[in-house]
Amino acid sequence: MEQISDNEIERSTLLEVFNVSEFCKRYRLDALEERRLRVLFGEFATQHELLMNARREPKFR
Predict the structure, then answer these.
(1) Are strands 17-19 and 44-46 parallel, antiparallel or unpaired?
(2) Which residue among 14, 18, 27, 35 is least enclosed by CB atoms within 10 Å?
């Protein structure tokens, strides 16, 4: 088994931070969901936080 020190691990990608309202427009979320996300995170949040917490009602045919 190989041990890796913390110094050898690099974070190669930066976290993408989104404006919550722009994120909601991009993913077509309604105003109620946008309000919920703003209360939860404020004006800005990382893409991962938004994607994991956004809810969208399913649209059936």
Answers:
(1) antiparallel
(2) 14
